[in-house]
Amino acid sequence: MSKNKITLGLLEFGLSSYTDNPVLVLENVIRYCDIADELGFNRFWLTEHHNLYRNSPWSSPEFLLPILLNRTERIKIGSGGVLISYQSPYRLALNFKLLANIFPNRVELGFANSHPKEHIRKLLVPDRDSNIIKDHFINITEVSKFYNDEVNILVDDSIFLPPFKGVTPDLFLLGSSFQNLEKAVELKLNFCRSIAKDEDMANKQWDLINHYMENFKLAHGITPNISIMVGFLCTKSHQRAVKIHSKIDVESIYLDIIGSPSFIYDEIQKISEMTGVSNFVLKDLSNDFKIKFKATELIAKEFSL
Fold first, then answer.
1. Does position 132 have pLDDT exceeding 80, yes or no?
2. Mean pLDDT of 156-162
3. Is residue 1 one of the residues assigned to a domain?
4. Residue 289 predicted with pLDDT over 90
5. What ranges make up the beta strands (E) of the chain?
6. In terms of residue numbers, what domain contains 255?
7. HSE of 41 in the Cβ direction (CA atoms, 13 Å)?
């Protein structure tokens, strides 16, 4: 049986357990992106997260994106994703549209339905009750409308997002289920799906992807990007990868693939064959950037990126 041609991207949180210096962590993240671009990975996403790690170099990575775009040649750079419930859709659409026109066809904007702790929510949305956050699709709909209906918005609402009729970023809905695929079609959203640790990969729900792709193409005339996100930890030795992973304190609720390059290749091929998806976004579970750098080399070689 012929193997599917797999494309791989990376998801990065900017966390490290090997230094207390956030500037050093930031330098490592920038180098990580450089390596990913050089080795043939197709995207590099940074997460928005509001935690209490003192060595975390960012909470919102938005201002880091143009730096990464300017340093790299071809890799797509994006936020995977913004906490859209706590954002101004207008401001977000303005900034990402400008960025997409400076770096055409390389900017991606992912939407996450996550919520920080209450005291952070109050800082993000000081003008309203942080415990009564509206449906995140209301804000996503506004961003989508700014990009896909700009003529009517200009005529009817006197709202203008420069450059007029310019390039727009690729929009992604991030989720752990298929319950919002119809909404994704309506709003012209690509889709990135995380997989639960105990999920039945043979579940016929994966057939919904084909319906989503067909409906999307009928509605918009183009084929959407479907990606699967999994955690991984890779070293040359399968046993060493398992040993390193066993020392990681945080228990993951998502599917993690731990082992040698060939093992990870085989496992991702299995998922691809069961789901029909050939685009993957990988989150390296190691907080040691030396291991991450080497893992990208091993994976790129194994997958012939």
1. no
2. 90
3. no
4. yes
5. 7-12, 43-46, 76-83, 107-112, 170-175, 190-194, 226-234, 256-259, 279-284
6. 7-303
7. 28
